[in-house]
Write a structure and sequence with these properties.
Elements lengths: L2 H14 L2 H13 L3 E6 L14 E7 L3 H6 L1 H7 L3 E5 L12 E7 L8 H11 E11 L6 H17 L9 H7 L3 E4 L6 E6 L2
Parallel strand pairs: 1-2, 1-4, 2-3, 4-5
Antiparallel strand pairs: 5-7, 6-7
The structure holds S-adenosylmethionine.
S-adenosylmethionine binds next to loops.
Length: about 200
């Protein structure tokens, strides 16, 4: 990996997505989390301060060692176990039906094989468990879609694999999931269930 991808992208993402900018979208997503939580794209741990007491532990899936190291203070302050369990949400080494909540904040846009990651979420969630998500998604105008597709090759390289041309809601529907959208401006946010 390049210096850009390994060192600068995680730091830039942490700054761009700092709590003072993103808390209003993180809060409703994290508020729904309970029990044993798997977080796809844990980053620098910005969601930890928003988890309710009902969360007993967080299992982090994060490929960036820089981001993981930078989360050390947030992990220490969380006061409950936070364990790095893998580096790819599309290949989880976790038992079937062993998780209460899967959380993903601005990560479904970046995971290389999103259908496989959603299949992993379905597999590890216990019956009644749910996935909580906030994301950007493909624009809703033909012009916007054309622009997103045009900039994607450059944007993807600059932004650590982020896809601005990915129709995330369509991929969720293709995964056989039920998507309940919560009202938000600017981003899409909601709950995914498979039962
Ligand atoms: C835009 S950042 C969001 C970080 C964090 N969730 C937040 O809300 O601040 C996307 C994160 O997804 C991680 N990521 C990239 N590919 C991944 C994959 N295949 N599985 C899990 N996480 C991945 C990146 O390293 C990065 O930390």
């Amino acid at each position: 990996m390049t210096v850009w991808g390994e060192h600068l992208v995680p730091v830039a993402a942490e700054w761009l997505m700092r709590d003072s900018v993103t808390a209003r979208w993180r809060r409703p997503v994290c508020a729904e989390a309970v029990g044993r939580v798997v977080e796809f794209g844990f980053g620098a741990g910005a969601n930890l301060v928003h988890y309710p007491d009902a969360v007993s532990e967080v299992l982090a899936v994060e490929p960036s060692r820089v981001a993981w190291q930078r989360s050390s203070q947030a992990r220490a302050q969380f006061g409950r176990p936070v364990t790095l369990v893998g580096d790819d949400a599309a290949a989880l080494d976790l038992d079937d039906a062993s998780i209460d909540t899967v959380v993903s904040t601005w990560t479904l846009c970046t995971i290389g094989d999103l259908p496989a990651a959603l299949d992993q979420a379905r597999r590890v969630l216990r019956p009644g468990g749910a996935m909580q998500v906030v994301e950007h998604t493909i624009p809703d105008t033909a012009f916007g879609v054309g622009l997103a597709k045009a900039v994607q090759p450059v944007w993807g390289r600059l932004a650590g694999g982020c896809h601005v041309d990915r129709d995330i809601e369509a991929i969720i529907a293709d995964a056989g999931a039920r998507w309940t959208r919560r009202p938000t401006s600017r981003f899409i946010s909601g709950t995914i269930r498979w039962d």
